[in-house]
Design goal:
It is built from eleven helices and twelve strands. The protein is an alpha+beta fold. The strands form two sheets. Strands 1, 2, 3, 4, 5, 6, 7 and 12 form an eight-stranded mixed beta sheet that branches. It has a four-stranded antiparallel beta sheet with strand order 9-10-8-11. Helix 6 crosses helix 8. The two termini are 25 Å apart. The N terminus is likely disordered. The structure holds alpha-D-galactopyranose. Alpha-D-galactopyranose binds next to helix 5.
Length: 413
Amino acid sequence: MLARAGRYALPAVSETRRLELERALLEHRALFLRRFGGDGPVRLWFSPGRVNLMGAHLDYNGGPVMPTAIDRGTFLALRPRSDGRIQLASTLELGELELEAGDLPLQPARRWWDYPVGVLRELSAHSGRLGRPVAGFDLLFGGNLPVGAGLSSSASICVGTALALSETWGLCLPRLELVQVALAAERGFVGVQCGIMDPYAVGLARAGSLLWLDCKDGSNAWMPLDPELHTIAVADTLVRRELAQSAFNERVRQCAQAFAELAPHQPGATCLRDIRLETLEARRGELDPLLARRAEHVLREVARTFAARDALLRGDLAGFGAQMTRAHASLRTLFDVSVPELDTLVDAAVGCEGVLGARLTGAGFGGCVVVLLRRGAEPELLARVQNAFGARFGRAPTVEFFGGDEGPREFRP
Ligand code: GLA
């Protein structure tokens, strides 16, 4: 029987996973009590991470993306205080922050708490508009999302914090506003020029669906991906590149430059996504070859993402998967964001019976590969990627299977 109404749509996997998550959240509450002591009810929230299946490096170019949430993410345990003090701690990061609710920092500290503090600043503006002073609380963060793997731990923290505080303070902000708060916190306070995909992917996620998000105008829709028939695997190379952030920023700059050079030849274009492939081809000789390759990836990926959406809508999952695998080839050869560990995983996965497509997810330069496969092909995929990866790199990648999860929610035991 398909448990459509449940949080987890795969009955066999889901029940175990739901129990695992429940146990982990209850442990998190125990850690909260050990850290902060005291009494009074402690509320718990879970905020997922995300994987993106199509639309690689398109969000900051105004293109479409197709992410889904996963049931690994951020845990938040929160208890209001009556003295107006705020204490933030984490089971995953060193250092804690104590402050007065009425005296929020004006500058980031370059520490992990910049993300929740950014959210606090944004929400205090909402709170002020509603005539409610910001109230104090103790908040312990934790979770089971690998940091730096490209699964969007920062959006998971920001949207989760926005939801927990909105509910605690009775602001009742709709999901889309929580997404905007998270985005403003990351861009405005933390100072990361991130694209819009991650907070939308986390905040608007629905079980058994991919989110279709057009990053030019923010329009979005849910596309069904039947978890009874298909599974999403995430294989982590465990490669973490120090230079990943600067290499990502460089891609953002190169795309902006390619757009600046092509825009005069494309009337009405407001972002790189609006440039037509014919325009790029006609002007290729005048462009720096590197910029031309970056632009070519973006323009072809836009076309691939629309083709993938059409395939999904007509139930052609093999067609959808084929676009994923093409996307990886382009990320490797035109966008230069792959590494041998990612290529090895993709090659091993696509050679496996029942695998529909595979590509790197997130920014690249290490991190994870996402694989779309038919239910039942999991053991074969696991064996293949572990053998191929082990033979080449002498160690094992971690591989996990997901059915697509909901957005952030309160956990009530
Ligand atoms: C990172 C960014 C996203 C997106 C992807 C590439 O994960 O956080 O906004 O740009 O890279 O698709």
